[in-house]
Amino acid sequence: MRDPGLPSLDQLRVFIAVIDHGGFAHAARALHRTQSVISYTIANLEEQLNIALIDRGRRKVTLTEAGKALLADARAVSARVDGMRARAKALGSGLEAEVCLVVDVMFPMCRLVMLLESFQREYPTVALRLHTEALGGVAQMVLDGRCQLGISGMPVHLPDHIERQLAGHVTMMPVCAPSHPLAVIDGIIPAATLREHLQLVVTDRSPLTAGQDFGVRGLRDWRLADLHSKHALLRGGLGWGSMPEAMIAEDLANGRLVRLRVQDGDALQYPLFVIHRADDQLGPAGRWLKDQFLELDYSLPHGAY
Q1: Residues 119, 127: Cα–Cα separation, whole Å
Q2: Dihedral sign for Cα atoms in the order 270, 276, 278, 279
Q3: Which of 2, 3, 86, 251 could covalently link to 256 via disulfide, CB atoms 3.0 to 4.6 Å apart?
Q4: What angle is formed at CA 201 by the lines to CA 198 and CA 203, rounded to 5 degrees?
Q5: What was the pLDDT predicted at 216?
Q6: Does residue 304 fall inside a structural domain?
Q7: d(C-alpha 212, C-alpha 214), whole Å
Q8: Distance of alpha carbon 19 from alpha carbon 17, whole angstroms
Q9: Can you give the pLDDT at residue 305?
């Protein structure tokens, strides 16, 4: 038995049309061809593949078992070619092939998911690379040129060629587990009392803010590499620390964490800035993302995450 030949894209699309339109005559009308041309194309495709695709012993167009399996392949090939053409058209018009975005770990994930869903609908051909970093890590990735766009938290000293715009704020709350000694203190907790207990802090992996402490009040602290580790340790009662309101709303509602009333304020407005390099202009998709972050409503319904 000879090996299958190489079918053309046109043959595959005629095959798909015959099935989707329910017959040779309907496919001929949809493709503006004669029925004899459609029949000839399908026969040629079967000859190329060395296998019957359509059961001609029935009045209604019916796929053979092999035809059912190969129809899925034909659809996949056609879709990939359409995708390639769409991407080529977009690239030819100046649209980026890819956007690299780095977001501060404090950014509310529910808002990010909604925004990126819109991005996917608006720019289906543009690939996205998403990173999450803490503190100066966001600015470092933009500064190094690894990401075109960043959503950065606490302000750090940046060179003049980094543009920065305030986008909004995230509410940070000091919390601990109900089993923690701080949880049973009535009234406002003095700063001296707070300092006596272990504080859980997300560490910075960037040299931009090396040696700087943001919101560290405890005499003893544990430095953690990511926010989710901090969240887990807080719920385990291993210390206290501040967390984004959106991330712990459910824990506060069900009693897994309790909010601390502390002397110098029990909530912090954590700023979020949109940053990018002025000497590396954003493309259409990057500019769209930037505008969406600037227009985003950062106030969250209770319990959203």
Answers
A1: 10
A2: positive
A3: 251
A4: 140
A5: 64
A6: no
A7: 7
A8: 5
A9: 42
What whole-number distance in Å separates Cα of residue 71 and Cα of residue 48? Answer: 15
Each residue's pLDDT tens digit, 82-130: 777 766 665 665 688 899 999 998 898 888 999 999 999 999 989 999 9
Show the tokens assigned to 91: 């690239």
The verdict on 134 and 213 lying in the same domain is: no
Greatest mean pLDDT among 65-69, 80-84, 111-115, 137-141 lies in: 111-115
Nearest CA to 247 among 225, 226, 261, 219?
226
Q: Domain range holding 155?
A: 98-168+273-295
Q: Which of 71, 93, 115 is the last residue of a domain?
A: 93
Q: What is the pLDDT of residue 273?
A: 93
Q: How far apart are the first and last CA of the chain?
A: 59
How many structural domains are present in the chain?
3
Residue in the structure block whose two tokens are 């997300």: 202
Task: Provide the token pair at 52.
Answer: 């019957």
In this prediction, residues 31-37 reach a mean pLDDT of 89
